[in-house]
Amino acid sequence: MSDELRIIDPVPRDAAGTTEIGFSIPARYNASAILFDNIAAGRGARTAVMGPGGSRSYAELADAAARMGTGLLSLGAARGDRILLFLDDTPAYPAVFFGAMRAGLVPLLINTLTPSDLLQFYLADSGAPVAVCDAAFADRFNATACTGTRLKTLVIVNGAAPAGVPVAVRAVDEWLEQPAPALAPADTHRDDMAFWMYSSGSTGRPKGIVHLQHDMAYTHLSYGRHLLQLTETDICFSVPKIFFAYGLGNSITFPFAVGACSVLLPGQPKPSAIFDCIARYRPTVFFGLPTLYTALTKAPEAARADLGSLRIAVSAAEVLSGEVSGAWKALSGLDIMEGLGSTEVLHIYLSNTPDLKKQGAAGKRVPGYEIKLTDSDGREAKDGEEGILWVRGDSNAPSYWNRPDKTAETMRDGGWIYTGDRFLRDADGYHFFRGRADDLVKVSGQWVYPLEVELCLADHAMVRECAVMAVEQADGLTTLKAFVVLADPAKRSDETTRDLQDYVKGRLLPYKYPRVVDYLDDLPKTGTGKIDRQALLKRGS
Q1: Which domains does the chain have, with CATH numbers?
Q2: For the segment 159-171, what is each residue's pLDDT rounded down to a tens digit?
Q3: pTM
Q4: Contact 72, 95 (CB under 8 A)
Q5: Which residues pair with 144 in a beta bridge?
Q6: Under 8 Å CB-to-CB from 1, ≥6 apart: which residues?
Q7: Is the pLDDT of residue 12 over 80?
Q8: 217 vs 278: CA distance, rounded Å
Q9: Distances in Å between the alpha carbon of 174 and those of 57, 87, 96, 322?
């Protein structure tokens, strides 16, 4: 038996039953190769990252990564120790990330909007002895965050730490001033832990999602190579941050795997800053979310935006409305390539392509992944029937850290991940999201999926954004409530509410209309740009 992991498309396409994607991963493999292989390939002088936080060539970034890995080991971190990364999108992020993995350490990619009490959970759950943090966020590492954890050292990048941090503080500049080390990659197996991400924790405490050394390479060989078709002349710009699985692939995995360049934008991604980055750095591939595309197309700066450098625009995470798609095409001349993935799978496994797409569809199966839909009895759903989506591919996380109960629910026998998402697949192989399996609620004695109502309402000409959720009323009964952002806020009125309700009644069954409509200036967003439904629930209660 070969010791190589063959990267194949598991769905039969030829007489042999499989189709080679065109690469293999050896048994001894360290994920830092995604950065360091560029040096061996003679691409050291090419620009790896650029943006408001500075630019670095591949040679400079590899040198910084080696210094970072050596510095972390000098603190006493041992093979397999977790290193918590609390970083914004600057050149320091890929340097620390790859340096840690090259040293045999396991970086944790943490949302920088995390408050101190949740940060304490991450530190305690992972047992991380070291954290690396942007100076701007260092005050988050206070007594609340550090008490009851193994954290011994906080390493500061991009500035100086504030006073009062209750653990030892080191400045990364100390390492960068040392002679360049020759840091050989740790002798890891392709199935060893490489890095973790945490679930959003929308229900219950967050789960540590364990990813392996070969997972990033697999997403490149499946989605990156087949859907993006990047070359070293491409420039990628992902507004979703690196700590987000979608952003990690967009900003690091895919461009670095081919020697391309990535634009990194620190700070809050306001439309003005995004348009300025596109005009200044001329990216060719742009990655966003539906909420971001909505904000961009509605922004005052859109009228004078220069988007002529773009050849592909990608969206993921939530359903993209026809109105937003049309507005973006009118602005940029590009259709949005919509897809769907998850942190557990690391990136996108259903996608449209620039040439083959259907509005509202998450897309077709990405080469390298198997997809099936099953009903409540486990029977595979036919075309035109709804079912729960399962996905299998070699970037699937094997487990949640120290959560055997949740691991058993999601990571099933045979390498399948049970997503809990309901989809309908049409005869052409396109998949349409229909909500969560557990989202069915009873309103006035009738069963309703809130997402169905939300998608309908989002198509109304007066609606810019909306979210529809089931809320419990004072009498204990459940009703549907729509949180609506109007294209023209001046139109808020009882008449508009009746118009929106009648619109839903006329397109769906009459009982499915939202009984309550709450008008907002904007919908709250999570750190990854999705609608923050937990915040809306608190408002709705």
Answers
A1: 31-46+58-213 (3.40.50.980), 215-437 (3.40.50.12780), 439-540 (3.30.300.30)
A2: 998 888 999 999 9
A3: 0.84
A4: no
A5: none
A6: none
A7: no
A8: 27
A9: 21, 18, 14, 52
